[in-house]
Amino acid sequence: MITGNRVSHSNVKTKRRFYPNLQRKKFYIPEEDKWIVLTVSTEGIRTINKKGIKNAMKEAREKGYMKK
Q1: 12: in domain
Q2: What is this structure's pTM?
């Protein structure tokens, strides 16, 4: 989460927050022949599409983002 200012037409600044764009997405894992539902950011979805679900899960487990 990042913070910043909301700026009105009269240039009055009030605090606001920028939240990550999280999505619930179903992914199929052919090695385990099952579907999983993950809450991931849109950037995470792009990473999974690029590297594949198996490699992305392996890296996430190594970094401690997922339970084993």
Answers
A1: no
A2: 0.69
